[in-house]
Write a structure and sequence with these properties.
Blueprint: H1 11-34, H2 41-48, H3 52-58, H4 62-85, H5 90-110, H6 127-145, H7 154-177, H8 186-199, H9 223-226, H10 228-247, H11 250-256, H12 261-267, H13 271-294, H14 300-317, H15 333-360, H16 368-381, H17 386-389, H18 395-408
Helix pairs in contact: 1-2, 1-4, 2-3, 4-5, 4-6, 5-7, 5-8, 6-7, 7-16, 8-18, 10-11, 10-13, 13-14, 13-15, 14-15, 14-18, 15-16
């Protein structure tokens, strides 16, 4: 007679833990691809070979499963940060951290490890869950900031805070561009990525000389002139950046503008359409800044840093910032490639600007494709640093402090 399995069976906790891990792994994939709204118990069950009611044995509510996904990602990254932090110098710590994440992309591609979750919708969870996750994330962030050593004063702490924030965004952005590379190139990718992170693009002695760009009204907010549509773009962009797609409901967007849901649907067929318009608006403005910088009568270095300075000031202070790429989860898969193509076009234009500057000898020679992706991650992360930027008396100084990690590298105290 076969033995029955009970919760007292020593093998049962192992089976329970493995199956729970499988469920979290499947839910991570769904969250990354479809967001919280598109992640269902039915689809998770299908992926792990269970029926839907069996999932509730492990997680009674979807919010509990989502919390477990975010917890697993933060714990996993925290363990990686501990391993990297054990190295003796800031450069070695960052290099090990970056190397582990490139290796992780390889393992995910081979199927030997599961994906890490995009954390953009974490703020939509109930307050008690969010509080615990936030505490864990703050601990992770402090470990990353600790890669750069103990700051001697407030200025060093601000700089290390910016660098840690950018470093986290760089690894979160890896899934967007590493699929363009063969895994056999990943060792070279590590070296070239670390060259940009560690040494920046500036030649020795290059100062930070951004010039004002012509025709700035082309990308600055003009909501009063542009009417209701611009107001909807502004409010939706702000809310999606702050709360993620799920948290930016039609009701919350309408309430933020003091209009009815009916007014929203008068201008838009669905929220997804507005999200796509937000992306389109962001990429149009990015392109306008790039083209304005290219029109400057200046060398390549000046054109690049002038575009960076303008875009960071926009992210820090403009009423309508650029939409964070994490909102890509909300875009239907069949339309997502269009958004990714726009992102790649922006990256290629930055690559071209870098190549032009190489040719004239105004910046260091780095891998232009990888440098452009680092720059996109740096700009994308800037919106969340609005509070940080308000700690500077001079807005231009906040821009310079934040931008110097890309311009001069993460291991120098000299920011031009």
């Amino acid at each position: 007679m076969a033995a029955t399995t009970s919760r007292e069976d020593p093998a049962e906790p192992d089976r329970f833990g493995r199956k729970k891990q499988d469920i979290v792994r499947a839910a991570t994939t769904l969250l990354n691809d479809h967001g919280i709204k598109g992640t269902t118990f039915q689809e998770v069950a299908r992926m792990v070979g269970l029926n839907t009611s069996s999932i509730t044995y492990y997680f009674r509510r979807k919010e509990q499963l989502v919390q477990a996904v975010y917890d697993a990602t933060i714990e996993r990254m925290s363990a990686m940060a501990d391993e990297a932090g054990a190295h003796p110098t800031p450069r070695e710590r960052v290099a090990h951290w970056v190397g582990m994440h490139i290796d992780l992309r390889d393992s995910i591609r081979r199927g030997s490890e599961g994906r890490i979750a995009v954390l953009s919708e974490m703020r939509t969870l109930p307050e008690d869950m969010l509080r615990a996750l936030n505490d864990s994330y703050v601990k992770l962030f402090r470990k990353i900031r600790g890669f750069f050593g103990e700051p001697e004063d407030d200025a060093e702490k601000r700089l290390s805070t910016a660098r840690a924030h950018i470093l986290l965004e760089i690894v979160f952005w890896l899934p967007a561009w590493t699929p363009l590379y063969s895994s056999r190139d990943f060792e070279r990718v590590k070296d070239r990525l670390m060259d940009v992170i560690g040494n920046g693009i500036a030649l020795p002695g290059k100062n930070w000389p951004p010039l004002p760009l012509p025709h700035s009204e082309g990308w600055r907010s003009r909501t009063a002139e542009q009417g209701p549509q611009a107001e909807f773009l502004r409010m939706a962009t702000q809310m999606i950046n702050q709360r993620g797609y799920k948290g930016a409901s039609v009701q919350s967007i309408a309430s933020g503008l003091n209009v009815t849901k009916g007014s929203f649907y008068h201008h838009h067929d669905a929220k997804d359409d507005l999200v796509l318009q937000c992306f389109e608006n962001s990429y149009e403005r990015l392109s306008a800044v790039q083209l304005a910088a290219l029109s400057l009568d200046a060398d390549g270095w000046t054109r690049i840093v002038s575009s960076i300075a303008e875009l960071l000031d926009l992210q820090f202070r403009d009423p309508t910032p650029l939409l964070r790429t994490a909102a890509l989860q909300a875009v239907p898969i069949e339309r997502r490639n269009t958004v990714l193509q726009r992102s790649e076009r922006v990256a290629r234009r930055f690559s071209g600007m870098l190549v032009d500057a190489f040719a004239e000898g105004s910046i260091r020679i780095v891998d232009p494709l990888i440098a452009a992706q680092v720059l996109l991650a740096t700009l994308n992360a800037a919106y969340e640093m609005r509070g940080w930027s308000e700690g500077f008396d001079d807005p231009a100084e906040a821009v310079r402090c934040y931008a110097c990690s890309f311009a001069y590298g993460m291991f120098t105290g000299d920011c031009g």
